From TrEMBL:
Protein name (Swiss-Prot/TrEMBL): DUF433 domain-containing protein
Pfam annotation, one family: DUF433
Superkingdom of source: Bacteria
Amino acid sequence: MPVKWREHIVTTPDILRGKPRIKGTRIPVSLILGYLASGNTVEEIIKVYIHVNES
């Protein structure tokens, strides 16, 4: 089943200066993408950021 990423990524002008973030957190999407680009797995990221899950 395809992931509906639009349900999980939000922008709000007064939070993180409007940068895309994980819904319900202040974790910027760019941070997660950086970890993935560096070779970290989704499981490793979830261990560090417990508010993020695979969905």
